[in-house]
Amino acid sequence: MRASTLHRLGIMPRMVISFAAVALLAGTANMIARESVRIIRTVARSPEIQSVRLQTPAPLPIIPQVTKSKMPAVLGAVERFAQASRSRANSNTAANNSDYTAARDTLKLAFRAYRGAKEPAAAWAPPVPVYLGRGEELILLSDQRRQDRTAYGNHAKLIADRIRGALDGAWSVFGRVIAKKSLIELRSELDLIRQRCEGLIAGETLDGGHIAQLIDAETALSETLTKSQSSLSKSEGAEWFSAVAMDFAAMASLRESLQKSNEQFAINERRFIEMGRTLQVELASATLSAKNGIATDNSNGLHPHAQPWLPSIAPTPPVLLETTVERTDPRAAKLMATVTMLVMLIIVAISVLTVRSVVLPVRRLIRATRQLADGQSNVRVGRGGIKELDIVAQAFDRMSVQLETMTDAYKTQQESLEHQVAERTYKLQQLAHQDPLTSLPNRRHLSALLSAAISRAQQTNRFVGVYFLDIDNFKNINDSLGHMFGDRVLMSVANRLEELVDGFGFVARLGGDEFTLVYEDADSAAAIREFGLLLANAFHKMVTVDDRDLSISVSVGASIFPEHKLEPEGLLLAADSALFLAKELGRNQLAVFTPELIASAAMRFTLEQGLRLALERSEFELAYQPEISVGRAEIGLVEALLRWRKPDGKLAKPGEFLAVAEQSGLMAEINSWVLHAALRDAATWHHGGWVDARVAINVSPRQLLDHLFVEKILFLLEKFRLPAKCIELELTESLLQTGSATIASLHVLQSHGFGIALDDFGTGYSSLTSLEQLPLSRVKLDRSLVSGIDLSARSAAIAAAIIELCAGLGLQVTAEGIERPEQFAWFASNPCILLQGFLLSDALPFDDVLPFKASVAGRLQDLLLSMPPSIRAGAAGVRKHSDRKLHSVGGQD
Question: Is 547 helix (H, G, I), strand (E, B) or coil?
Answer without folding.
Answer: coil
